[in-house]
Amino acid sequence: MAYIEFKDICKSYDGQNQILKNIHLDIEEGELVTLLGPSGCGKSTLLRSLAGLEQIDSGRIILDGEDIADVPVKKRGIGMVFQQYSLFQNMNVEDNIAFGLKIAKMDKNQMKEKVQRAIEMVDLIGKEKSYPSELSGGQQQRVAIARAIVMEPKVLLLDEPLSAIDAKLRRELQEKIKRVQKELKITTIFVTHDQDEAMIMSDKIHLMKNGIIEQSGNPVELYTHPVSKFAAEFIGHYNILDNQQLKTLLPKHNFNNHYYAIRPETILLQTEPIQDSNMYVFEAVVNHYISRGNVLRYTLSCHDVIIKSEALFRSFTLFDEGQKVYVGIEPHNILEIRD
Predict the structure, then answer these.
(1) Cβ-count burial of 305 within 10 angstroms (0-12 exposed, 13-18 middle, 19+ buried)?
(2) pLDDT tens-digit series, residues 112-123
(3) Which of 28, 124, 148, 339 has the fewest CB atoms within 10 Å distance of its CB?
(4) d(Cα 208, Cα 60) in Å, to the nearest integer?
């Protein structure tokens, strides 16, 4: 039995707009799981249903062997951190973190120890007496995380907590959240629409689309073996080709599936003919390229079929716009996918 079980969860608004469609999902104890998907796919609704902030229409939610669908929010033992920090502006860092413990009437000495431990875990030592207005956005979000973990919840829910923070701070907070989660071994569900963030953070990813789970797996599985056009387009920068386009590139080979996906970084480019007999090869022309840090992204054309290739930024791999190149793809990197 999984630690968290969503069983046939349905949720709609106004009896018409169905947000969750018979969701079945198991989460193991101690995992950091990400619900990934575009806006409106149902990921936050599923999270809020677990927290008790949304009432499901049908189905069961099991937490640690107990059906909690009708359990009040305060008795579910769940901590939640939102995109908005929601800190008390008239309280300093210590008091914000201690708020829930005070409500629970915890012994003062024990409370002080727990608050200090939480402050250490989120690297806010020296900021104990600071007020929210004196903190950066990243520091305020760390206070919100500390306030949640200090209560030792059964489950920690993070609803796009880093989306309002700049890129550098996001990376730092991603590392801190993952470190704290592993140290506490707390079952954590993270919601995001950012596939890079999901890849970095997760033990397991559940990709959602229109109220269903489109694909589940660890980050490597989802990135290397997408099952559908949606998964391939959302998780990576795949080339999505139908069988006619692929036959245009490789007329000597048979392709009977309707759609195929090819990762750009698996495509070899050379100025000389490719001699490897284990590769599918064809000729193309470089339309243009852009630099993304240490990666060059090429757009190529071959008989009106456009494909993209990526290579590490090295001087000997540079190709000019309009240049003819030889393209090589290993057969196992041409993946069959469904619509």
Answers:
(1) middle
(2) 999 999 999 999
(3) 339
(4) 19
Burial of 310 (0-12, 13-18, 19+ CB in 10 A): middle
CB 52 within 8 A of CB 71: yes
Residues 131 and 217 placed together within one structural domain of the fold: yes
Please write the tens of the pLDDT for every residue from 36-56: 999 999 999 999 999 999 999
Question: How remote is the C-alpha of 22 from its chain's centroid?
Answer: 22
Phi-psi region of 313 (alpha: psi -120 to 50; beta: other; left: phi over 0): beta
Tokens of 308: 């993209």
User: Do 230 and 246 have their domain in common?
Assistant: no
Same domain? 155 vs 266 = no
Residue 20, both tokens: 């969750």
Residues lower than pLDDT 50 in the chain: none
Residue 24: partners with Cβ closer than 8 Å, 6 or more residues away: 6, 7, 8, 9, 213
- Record the tokens describing residue 141, joined without a space: 């979000």
Alpha-helical (H) ranges within 65-213 are 93-103, 108-121, 137-149, 167-184, 195-201
The interaxial angle of helices 137-149 and 108-121, nearest 10 deg, is 130
Residues 133 and 200 in one domain: yes
CB atoms within 10 A of CB 240: 17
Whether the CB-CB separation of 273 and 310 falls below 8 Å is answered with: no
Angstrom distance (rounded) from CA 333 to CA 262 = 6
Domain that holds residue 83: 4-234
* 3-class DSSP state of 29: coil
**Are 278 and 328 members of one domain?**
yes
Q: Who contacts 239 (Cβ-Cβ below 8 Å, separation ≥6)?
A: 261, 262, 263, 264, 267, 307, 308
pLDDT score of 315: 57
Q: Residue 241 burial by CB count (10 A; 0-12/13-18/19+): exposed, middle or buried?
A: buried
* Bridge partners of residue 336, in order along the sequence: 260
Is residue 134 within 8 Å of 87, Cβ to Cβ?
no
